[in-house]
Protein: Homoserine dehydrogenase
Amino acid sequence: MSAREPLRVALLGAGVVGGAVARHLTQRSGDMAARVGAPLEIVGIAVRRAGRDRSELGVDASLFTTDAEELVTRADLVVEVIGGIEPARSLILRAMAHGASVVTANKALLAEDGPRLYAAAAQHGVDLYYEAAVAGAIPLLRPLRESLAGDEVRKVLGIVNGTTNYVLDKMDTTGAGFQDAVEQAQALGYAEADPTADVEGFDAAAKAAILASLAFHTRVSGSDVYREGITEVSAADVAAAREMDCVVKLLAICERNDGGVSVRVHPAMIPRSHPLAGVREAFNAVFVEADAAGQLMFYGRGAGGEPTASAVLGDLVAVARHRVGGGLGPGESSYADLPILSMGDAQTRYHVSLDVADRPGVLSKVAAAFAAHDVSIETVRQQLVAADDGVTAAGGDGSARANLIIVTHTASDAALSATVESLRSLDVVRGVNSVMRVEGF
Ligand SMILES: NC(=O)c1ccc[n+]([C@@H]2O[C@H](COP(=O)([O-])OP(=O)(O)OC[C@H]3O[C@@H](n4cnc5c(N)ncnc54)[C@H](O)[C@@H]3O)[C@@H](O)[C@H]2O)c1
Ligand SMILES: N[C@@H](CCO)C(=O)O
Ligand code: NA
Structure:
């Protein structure tokens, strides 16, 4: 082991992630020192309440402090795992101003105000690393930032929120409704007491913004991301997907085309044969497509104290090595500055399930609505609605009813959603059962 002076580490937050980081740093200090080339010495752990019993972390009780502002001024390396915007942002900026490199897991902050933090890191000549912020343990940001730095990334497509994947998986495999599945996720500790950030897609949108920024060398913030959560996904949607041999997943999609970049988070049907369909429970997986590399897939645990601590510790070792050996990791790269496309310009495909009157001319009226918006239909399947399946087989005008399932070719999202609006107003359409985007065919 090196005789070098210890590097002073300040830990901000001792919750799920911070607790796991503290335990590893304490129990495996010898390995960490050998890998870094200098000991990593915890000089303080900022907590909200000082008096609590935290003996299970195995750290000296005198290290806990409620004065995070003071703590960050006497550290070489600061790990921020408090979460949220403030005081996390001010503490990170203060730490950098005092010369500390920073490791954070805070996707919400990076998606809201990343450029300000990157600028501060550059100004003060320190590192800002955040592998844990997207897809937890999965090494994903480092590959994008470093391994693929010489390639052209075209698309990043993935499942980046464990809670919603768990909920959708349970809806698919057990037929559970949305609310039941959320309660199961809460009972297992995946979903928080207030699961809004997960189920409304805010968490995935923040991660999509970070991924797109790195992939396309362009500043993308959380508010640039089109976002739909899973609260509107019904058992009928999941059943419609099953009929198509598909599953519903909440996807983060970052695409680059000639016009710019499109970044979106929404539920979509994907074929059961697609590798993302096999991502079960609270796991995450991300596909990256690059010109020279072709397709790459990253899979693993995106949440939980231990998996997230793995990514935090990897970053901590990396920035500590820079302190020992000199130099800095790559900073923000936003030189490409590509325009960000609106959702209407995104190229998507729709699956639409309609209840229609079963009489002559209905199909042509439906087809005309698609044609009017220049949307090409790929497949149409029709089945009669039986009188005994819970709906009345006779329509209001005495005609029989049928279920029409239509899958489109790719078109702009604006054209597709305008088509659905037209369908809703057709007299032959009795009801729109399910509308969902389709990916991965
Ligand atoms: N838990 C995960 O699976 C996971 C995965 C990836 C990223 N993250 C990110 O990691 C960060 C931490 O998440 P977590 O799950 O550990 O949250 P947590 O709520 O378990 O822990 C946060 C801790 O910070 C403390 N805290 C809040 N304000 C503080 C302050 N001003 N000073 C000192 N302590 C303060 C809280 O009391 C709490 O103990 C968040 O940014 C989160 O998005 C978490
Ligand atoms: N709430 C997040 C934690 C990891 O960021 C999830 O469910 O994926
Ligand atoms: Na990661």
